[in-house]
């Protein structure tokens, strides 16, 4: 019981939030649903076009007919917000993984005392990694209705974008929690 008392709450919070954030941003990065295009003129009424940062899928919902790898006729993937997301989302994932490795070494549950400096450093890695995925998510959202789409169609935010947002925020909060470990170093 004494053993569990040794790991500060902030570290536990960081080690819970950041992996959850990583999972969400990973899903957001790979799942092709940053934007949904529906009610496309001259197309079946239940046809939905799902656009991610790597792929584009069309689904006819009444017959559950889903096809990915759709041709990008409107130059959607050439758009700056999409390009930026293609660069920053994977960078953020790598940085988050790195931060979590450092965090695991710093929190070191199998040792008597956590290493506050390492946990703090992990926080400083995880904080920008969260920001790195938040930037493309925000930018994409801001440009969502400006990005090329079939004329007259209806555009909505897709779940991948929402997950990227949530994941980024969890990583930022987890990073902040771990960065609080520096406070402990100063006390020593």
Automatic annotation (TrEMBL):
Any one cellular-component term (Gene Ontology): plasma membrane
First-listed, main subcellular location of the protein, grouped into a coarse class: other
Membrane association type: Multi-pass membrane protein
Transmembrane segments: 12-31, 84-105, 117-142, 162-182
Keyword Disulfide bond set for record: no
GO MF annotation terms: structural molecule activity
UniProt keywords, alphabetically: Cell junction, Cell membrane, Membrane, Tight junction, Transmembrane, Transmembrane helix
Compartments, as annotated in UniProt: Cell junction, Tight junction; Cell membrane
Family according to the record: Belongs to the claudin family.
Protein name: CLD23 protein
Protein species of origin: Oceanodroma tethys (Wedge-rumped storm-petrel)
